[in-house]
Design brief:
The protein is mainly alpha-helical. It is built from 4 helices and 2 strands. The longest helix is centred in the first third of the chain and has 17 residues. The two termini are 28 Å apart.
């Protein structure tokens, strides 16, 4: 746990750790009941601009932007009955990276633990816990309803949000999402 100003320094200096979580607090956290969305957007924009300002760092960076559930302000959609609470309502997530598929809307079933699955797969870590949702398989989508996995319970690992096969240094969209 460090102060957010340390993140800004790391972004400017290209000294980010391999994985960093950022949670704004108070009026900037994007929670629809208690904050201003414009402040949250400015906070996120600042992080993205700082990340993109260091090209060496940017060419290997992925930023995931998501919201708190927001008290039902978003479409609830299908909720998998994984445990007592289920996976919860659908919430927006945006991936910003030289490798993001830009303009692509991903329909595979994911939730907050999908980020853990992404980290585990990207760094070849194996499963971090024997009893976590990250142990669930990636979903197999049904063409008629991509929101309900055929092989549930299943949680995505977010890799389908990216194209890791292209050389991002030569990619025309390498400086934005």
């Amino acid at each position: 746990m460090r102060d957010v100003t340390d993140l800004f320094v790391d972004l400017r200096n290209g000294t980010l750790p391999a994985v960093a979580y950022v949670k704004p607090d108070g009026a900037m956290d994007g929670h629809p009941n208690s904050s201003k969305l414009t402040l949250f957007e400015a906070f996120v924009d600042n992080i993205i601009q700082l990340a993109q300002s260091n090209q060496e760092q940017w060419k290997e960076t992925a930023i995931f932007i998501t919201f708190d559930e927001g008290g039902g302000y978003y479409d609830s959609g299908f909720i998998q009955p994984i445990d007592f609470f289920g996976t919860g309502p659908r919430i927006p997530m945006i991936a910003v990276s030289p490798f993001s598929r830009g303009g692509h809307i991903k329909h595979s079933y994911s939730e907050h633990s999908s980020f853990v699955k992404f980290v585990e797969r990207n760094w070849h870590l194996g499963k971090l816990s024997d009893r976590s949702r990250d142990n669930l398989p990636n979903p197999e989508a049904d063409e008629d309803n991509p929101y309900v996995p055929r092989n549930m319970p299943a949680i995505g690992d977010l890799f389908d949000m990216f194209d890791f096969d292209h050389d991002n240094a030569d990619h025309p969209d390498s400086d934005h999402s």
